[in-house]
Amino acid sequence: MKENQVLNIEQDFALVLTASIDIKGMPKAYPTVAEQRQEDYYNSVKYYINNQPRIQKIIFIENSGWPLDRVKEAVADNPYDKTIEFISLDCNDFPREFGKGYGESLLIEKGLFKSNLINTVNHFAKITGRIYLKNMTQVLESTKENYDCLCDYKDQGWRIKKILGKKDVSPYCDTRFLVFSQNFYEHTIKPLHQKHEKGCFYLETRFYQAIKTVEGQHKVIYRFAIEPDFQGIAGHFGGKNYSSKKERAKFMIRSLTRKLIPMLHL
Question: Does the pTM of the predicted model rise above 0.85?
Answer without folding.
Answer: yes
